[in-house]
Structure formats: structure tokens, C-alpha cells
Inverse folding.
């Protein structure tokens, strides 16, 4: 059974690892977008511009339907970077509606805007799975997001003992794992999660495999 990495910015292929490479359509890379390997595509809040949205959404509408596009995103909200928040919300909404239309899960980037995310989920009555990637806030906020129906994905933060991410991994089976842009390998992240859960890496692989299957990512 492979290690599953739901969110990475690395393009390389590694034996024994299935990963979803995240591409932002705000750069020109989409002209050479992979046609077969699993990817996610979206307008990243750091780079997305409201005045380019109509054009970029036209590309998104076409490309998002490709079979190898497993997720829409990363997209999301970031109060520390990018366009003013109300513009980011407009950009995110379009992508959420597209994801709902084509029935693909969304992978979200969120910095200091968790309550806005909850409001959007309600307002748009989202039914598709919404994954918050790289969750590194406290356990209480994590639980709150899980209770609102968000799925959390954790990265290298689970290696910091006592962190919110580590505690959430310890106490739940509904989560995904990722490398993002970190140096830490997916194998190390699985090992850390297995240690936290006091289970074997193989048992953990089975848990994550089930979570992926439920999302139709395999
Ligand atoms: Zn990322």
C-alpha cells in the first residue's frame, strides 16, 4: 500500500508514494499541465487577482474536468497576503461553485480566516468535501472545523510534540497527511503520525487509504 500525500508542490515521482501535486493556474505552468499524474488545480490566494478572474475561471472550467485533476485548489483565504479579503472571497466562491458543479473535493489554504470559511460553506451549501490543508492551529479550532464538516490535512507540524496538529492526529482517524513544500518526507510524516496513534505505519496506511477512497481520490 502506498504512502498517500494529498498536497505537495514537488513534481517528482517517488516509488511507493502516491501524491497529488498542487498547481496554481495563476502562473503560466498550466500550458504544460500534466495530463495523467494526479494533480490539483486552483487559484492560490497569494497570487490570484480579481481582475484576472473571468479569464482564469474559463481555463479552470475546462481543465478541472480532466480525469487526473483530483481536487480543486489550493484556493482559499489569507489575511496576511494577497488581495483584500473581500476580493479573495469572490475568487474563492467561484472555485467553490465550480467544484460543486463538477463534484470534486476542494483543498483549502486558510490563514486567520476560519470563521469566514465556515460562513462560506453554509452560504453556498457546499456538499462536496472541503479539505483544509496544512492545519497547524490549536486543537479546539481543529475540532470546531471538523464539527462543521471540514476535513483536516496535516503536514510536518505533527512532528512538534504537543502541537494542535499532533493532538488532533492522536485523537482522530478522519484526517489526511501531506508534505506541502516542507523538507520532511511523507514517510517521516507517516512515522510521526503512527507514533502519535501508537499504531504501525501499515495500520496508518490503511486508515488514510480508507479516507482517500471515501473522497474518490484513488
Ligand atoms: Zn501548498
Amino acid at each position: 500500500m502506498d504512502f498517500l500525500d494529498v498536497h505537495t508542490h514537488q513534481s517528482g515521482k517517488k516509488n511507493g508514494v502516491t501524491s497529488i501535486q498542487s498547481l496554481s493556474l495563476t502562473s503560466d505552468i498550466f500550458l504544460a499541465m500534466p495530463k495523467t499524474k494526479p494533480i490539483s488545480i486552483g487559484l492560490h490566494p497569494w497570487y490570484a487577482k480579481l481582475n484576472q478572474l473571468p479569464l482564469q475561471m474559463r481555463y479552470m472550467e475546462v481543465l478541472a474536468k480532466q480525469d487526473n485533476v483530483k481536487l480543486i485548489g489550493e484556493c482559499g483565504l489569507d489575511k496576511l497576503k494577497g488581495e483584500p479579503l473581500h476580493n479573495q472571497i469572490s475568487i474563492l466562491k467561484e472555485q467553490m461553485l465550480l467544484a460543486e458543479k463538477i463534484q470534486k473535493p476542494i483543498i483549502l489554504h486558510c490563514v486567520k480566516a476560519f470563521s469566514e470559511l465556515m460562513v462560506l460553506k453554509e452560504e453556498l451549501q457546499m456538499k462536496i468535501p472541503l479539505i483544509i490543508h496544512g492545519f497547524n492551529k490549536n486543537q479546539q479550532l481543529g475540532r470546531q472545523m471538523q464539527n462543521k464538516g471540514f476535513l483536516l490535512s496535516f503536514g510536518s507540524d505533527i512532528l512538534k510534540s504537543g502541537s494542535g496538529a499532533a493532538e488532533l492526529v492522536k485523537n482522530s482517524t478522519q484526517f489526511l497527511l501531506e508534505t506541502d513544500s516542507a523538507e520532511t518526507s511523507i514517510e517521516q510524516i507517516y512515522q510521526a503520525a503512527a507514533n502519535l496513534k501508537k499504531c504501525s505505519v501499515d495500520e496508518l496506511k490503511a486508515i488514510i487509504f480508507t479516507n482517500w477512497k471515501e473522497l474518490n481520490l484513488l
